[in-house]
Design the sequence.
């Protein structure tokens, strides 16, 4: 499975599903209902579990568990980072193309990270220390104020480099219209700016999740497929959790513990070898506990 045909086959299936999604099932821009989001979330999780079983059959038990652990870490880290500020009926379109961009950008990051780890083994210690630092910072930082897109540096830079329309133009990313002097020109719409912000923030979030998966496995195929399977489910996850994600008040603490644990595992690997099934168990228990605690003991004011 971890061969040229495995790589080609996986990406062909992913692109086919995405083409079916946007080209057939969501041709019109409209709000995604909670029921539809729940169904699609279940579909993506089921497909990922089927792929994990295929990895188990073709590459062995260890690889199957590595895929599941990497998938769970990436999926959990994504829950705390999903947000889109755009009219509801256009959110599916933005998230769709945002995920296309994420597939490309994360693929590049994974290839680069794999090359670094293979050639310079000591980079794993840098990844480990970074994850511990990130986990501690996440645990100690206070809840941030509401996100203000007008202050986003990507938005400011884009407006300096390209003309941007003052308001949305349906579901278009670019339009051709006259400028102040009456000359026709192409201008980006706010929808395109949102797409830029979605992809750039995804890169920032990936600096946590990708090193974390390298702590689980060094196999580029497992790293890539577990990451992509998790990313593919983010659109449905966003629509499913958009109104309740702030209720998981202890999730950030649970994620910080996971990052510290994975970083420590990476740093201590030469001295203590932790079986992958144990790592999967720790990650699952920590995340499950943080979610149950959020439901059972909600903080005042949430």
Sequence:
């Amino acid at each position: 499975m971890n061969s040229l045909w495995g790589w080609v086959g996986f990406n062909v299936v992913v692109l086919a599903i995405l083409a079916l999604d946007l080209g057939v099932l969501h041709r019109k821009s409209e709000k995604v209902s909670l029921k539809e989001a729940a169904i699609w979330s279940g579909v993506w999780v089921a497909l990922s579990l089927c792929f994990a079983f295929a990895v188990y059959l073709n590459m062995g038990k260890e690889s199957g568990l590595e895929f599941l652990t990497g998938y769970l870490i990436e999926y959990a880290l994504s829950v705390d980072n999903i947000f889109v500020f755009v009219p509801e009926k256009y959110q599916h379109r933005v998230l769709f193309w945002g995920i296309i961009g994420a597939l490309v950008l994360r693929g590049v990051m994974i290839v680069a990270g794999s090359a670094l780890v293979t050639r310079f083994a000591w980079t794993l210690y840098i990844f480990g220390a970074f994850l511990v630092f990130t986990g501690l910072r996440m645990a100690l930082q206070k809840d941030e104020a509401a996100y203000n897109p007008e202050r986003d540096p990507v938005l400011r830079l884009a407006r300096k480099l390209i003309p941007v329309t003052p308001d949305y133009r349906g579901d278009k990313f670019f339009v051709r219209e006259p400028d102040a002097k009456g000359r026709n020109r192409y201008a980006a719409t706010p929808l395109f700016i949102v797409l830029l912000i979605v992809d750039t923030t995804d890169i920032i979030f990936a600096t946590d999740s990708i090193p974390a998966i390298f702590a689980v496995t060094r196999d580029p195929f497992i790293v890539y497929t577990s990451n992509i399977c998790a990313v593919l489910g983010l659109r449905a996850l966003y629509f499913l959790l958009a109104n309740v994600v702030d209720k998981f008040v202890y999730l950030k603490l649970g994620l910080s513990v996971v990052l510290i644990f994975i970083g420590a595992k990476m740093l201590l690997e030469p001295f203590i070898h932790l079986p992958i099934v144990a790592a999967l168990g720790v990650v699952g228990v920590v995340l499950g506990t943080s979610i149950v605690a959020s439901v059972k003991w909600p903080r005042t004011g949430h």
